[in-house]
Amino acid sequence: MSFKEIAVHQESYCAIFSAGMSSACVVDIGAQQTSITFVDEGLINADTRIKLDYGGDDITTSMVSLLERSSFPYRDLDLAKAQEWLMMDNLKIKICTLEEHLVASTPWDFYRLKSEGLTEKYNFRTYDENILAPLVRSHILALLTTVFLRYENDQL
Question: What's the pTM value of the predicted model, to 2 decimals?
Answer without folding.
Answer: 0.74
